[in-house]
Amino acid sequence: MPRRQITGFSNPTVKYLRSLREKKHRKAAGKFLAEGLRLLTDARECGRVPEILVMAEDRDPHPLLDALEAAVEAEGGEVIETSDDILAKITGKSNPQTVAGVFGEWDTSLKALDRNSAKIWLVAQALRDPGNLGTMLRTGDAVGAGGLILIDDCADPFSVEAVRASMGAVFTQQLAMARWEVFLPWLRSGPGSEHGGQLVAASLRDAVPYRSAPYVGPCFILVGNESQGLPEDYELACDLRVTMPMMGRADSLNAAVAGAVLAYEVLASLG
Amino acid sequence: MPRRQITGFSNPTVKYLRSLREKKHRKAAGKFLAEGLRLLTDARECGRVPEILVMAEDRDPHPLLDALEAAVEAEGGEVIETSDDILAKITGKSNPQTVAGVFGEWDTSLKALDRNSAKIWLVAQALRDPGNLGTMLRTGDAVGAGGLILIDDCADPFSVEAVRASMGAVFTQQLAMARWEVFLPWLRSGPGSEHGGQLVAASLRDAVPYRSAPYVGPCFILVGNESQGLPEDYELACDLRVTMPMMGRADSLNAAVAGAVLAYEVLASLG
Prior knowledge:
Radius of gyration of chain A: 20 Å
Number of helices of chain A: 11
Oligomer: homodimer
Largest sheet of chain A: 7 strands, parallel
Strand content of chain A: 15-25%
Low-confidence stretches of chain A: none
CATH class of the largest domain in chain A: Alpha Beta
Shape of chain A: elongated
CATH architecture of the largest domain in chain A: 3-Layer(aba) Sandwich
Strand order of the largest sheet of chain A: 8-7-6-11-9-12-10
Helix content of chain A: 25-40%
Distance between the termini of chain A: 48 Å
CATH superfamily of the largest domain in chain A: SPOUT methyltransferase, trefoil knot domain
Mean pLDDT of chain A: 93
């Protein structure tokens, strides 16, 4: 299939691609944008091939780019060549990557998760910062977590910022979104070790030191909103509350940092 | 001293305050902006009082705000009242905090650091994201670190984003900036345990597992640039290289996350 050349900023496809930087347009289309050869290669190797592949005209040749282009064409997708300037406009980045792709969003309901596929799961409640969200996906990949469950109103995991911060883990980690009222019964009805899975949060309430806490898998590590933390009743619903040392003036860590320190502790404990 | 009222967007003081969101203006003035009652109170309790205090007209009264105002007046500073809209314009935030302050920058040379005041120090090399930088300051406060040393060209720790992400730790942590060529001799000439202080980095090169590594204080935890990591010769100059498990596809963590997981491990090891 020949590549389509796009040269004009006012081209409807450029407008469509740009529109995917906004949540309402992503939700209406059910699509999202991801950039970078490495990230798109991670996606391909996880079975996610872009429906539209956009490449800079003056890119350097690369075998991974050839593989990507072949995969897109094999699945009937479209390959577009355009200028750096237009790529910058599409991705909102002054120094854009030389390649970007449009992906279809996928099922993010709890029933799409296989909770027994991993010993660690990350759970974020009302996490508002897409960078924190992407960082949690990236950490999940690193600790061998199954995925990330987003509770209540979180940032969109398919935003450009979250996808970028995930460094590709948005494609490798399982992802679900649910209200707390739906998540908790789902967790408790599962076949996991204790109540379907151990729900753990960092807390000051009736908590044990995080370094010697009795973690069991599947262990669901719950992190709260950046400014409010977890609601009290969410904390109380946890199977295990742990404290982390706070040696200074602050009483909390960045949400993604807290999740990562706990996740590495659970990984060391469960092996 | 009476409070000055500012009602116009074109007021020169408003322009000056807004200009502090840009690095070149901060450097020219030697001043920076911080927002929020809690953060400004942390600053005051650490002996840093704003030279100019800006308050929203429709703020709620608060004893900490009274204490702040009194401190500013006691030190001959200026107190300004203005509208929410103007505060939003100054801080670049649509829902601004009801109070902001202008602080003088302070000495950030290595000689201002007391390396024996803490067992843990964080060191970041070419860290470009102000959010990551602020998060590292916040983590440093939490683990009882002495402070953060910024090597080579890093984001500005006095940017609004970094100050915000630090959650006040920019005032509680010691802060220094230096080129690598200056930092390394400084480190080696110090009175610390081994070569003046143990320099530790996460690495894949000739490294030991981070959970059982022989940390000694003062321990300097070195984290590299977000996309490039550490230069090879910087890694090789470290006294200890440690590996962290990477169970997934990615071969690295977010810089602030890696620093935090290591810092909590060193804290657990050194006590």
